[in-house]
Amino acid sequence: MDRLKEKIAIVTGGANGIGRAIAELFAQEGAWVLVVDIEREAGEAAAAAIARNGGRAEFCYADVSAPEDAARAVRRAADRNGRVDILCNNAAYLGDFHAVVESTAEEWEKCIRVAVMGTHHFTKEVLPFMMAQKSGSIVNVVSIQAMVGCMTSVAYTATKAALLGYTLSAAYDYGPHNIRINSLCPGPIQTRISPQPGEPHYKWQCDQTMLGRVGYPKEVAYAALFLASDEASYVTGATLPVDGGWTAK
Ligand SMILES: NC(=O)c1ccc[n+]([C@@H]2O[C@H](COP(=O)([O-])OP(=O)(O)OC[C@H]3O[C@@H](n4cnc5c(N)ncnc54)[C@H](O)[C@@H]3O)[C@@H](O)[C@H]2O)c1
């Protein structure tokens, strides 16, 4: 219950799916959580559900690709007590993906602006707080698509691979400040963007894993909780797959 006691946490893309599960678990473990998203209704609902379960959370409308939104959201979190302990960069553009020939400049731009630049804007804003307090944990939700090839998603895959590099570089620079930065790589996780049971792509996903099934948002949230918590005090620059064994097969 107290693995994140009194920590101030920000979860981007926290209104749905994996981000919502992370926000809920962080709150359940004692953190005050700022749920950041562009979907107002779902974001308010996520914060309200956390409160109903005895947790502490607020929704903040912010588009992660806008630097001014990132600055405003981080200020709001820091207004609690001057600290920002945890940042989970989870938001990504998850639209229609294509192979190289069919991919459009617009698709590339959206993927880069949300996943890569969104991670950068939020990271840049929280680091001064984390440096001042000489501690912090940043968890970047990446994807196994940064580690293995998958079909028709070249722009998405490229941005996820970029995030692995971003994590390593940032972890190197801010390690001396006791700030840990890690990549979490989910495999096929059942959210609204996923293929449904019965569809051929669903069976294909299950077959790629050693466990023979897809995963659930809570299973990613527990890994994020470990990386965010002081239990991971000597873990930085790591890439943690949560993928049922897909990348080990
Ligand atoms: N579901 C999977 O199988 C899977 C696998 C690997 C990685 N991931 C990664 O997990 C993360 C969450 O995915 P999910 O499956 O939960 O998807 P989801 O669509 O359920 O959740 C994504 C959330 O991000 C928000 N968002 C999108 N653009 C935003 C922006 N510009 N600013 C703020 N919020 C924004 C959305 O509104 C949504 O609430 C993503 O980074 C995704 O790439 C998912």
Could you name the key traits of this structure?
7 helices; alpha/beta; 249 residues; binds nicotinamide-adenine-dinucleotide; seven-stranded parallel β-sheet; Rossmann fold
Compact description:
This protein has 249 residues and is an alpha/beta fold. 43% of the residues lie in helices and 16% in strands. The protein is built from 7 helices and 7 strands; from the N terminus they run βαβαβαβαβαβααβ.
Structure notes:
This protein has 249 residues and is an alpha/beta fold. The protein has one domain (8-190, 218-240): NAD(P)-binding Rossmann-like Domain (Rossmann fold, 3-Layer(aba) Sandwich). The chain has helices at residues 17-28, 40-52, 67-78, 105-133, 154-174, 200-208, 217-228; strands at 8-12, 32-37, 56-61, 86-89, 136-141, 179-186, 239-242. It has a 7-stranded parallel beta sheet, with helices on both faces. The longest helix has 29 residues, at 105-133. It starts with 7 loop residues before the first strand and ends in a 7-residue tail after the last strand. The mean pLDDT is 98. Nicotinamide-adenine-dinucleotide is lined by residues 12-13, 15-19, 36-39, 63-65, 90-94, 114, 118, 141, 143, 186, 188-189, 191-194.
Helix content: 40-55%
Shape: globular
**Which architecture name does CATH use?**
3-Layer(aba) Sandwich
**What is the CATH T-level topology?**
Rossmann fold
- Low-pLDDT residue intervals, each spanning 5 or more residues: none
Strand portion: 15-25%
**What are the bound molecules?**
nicotinamide-adenine-dinucleotide
Assembly level: single chain
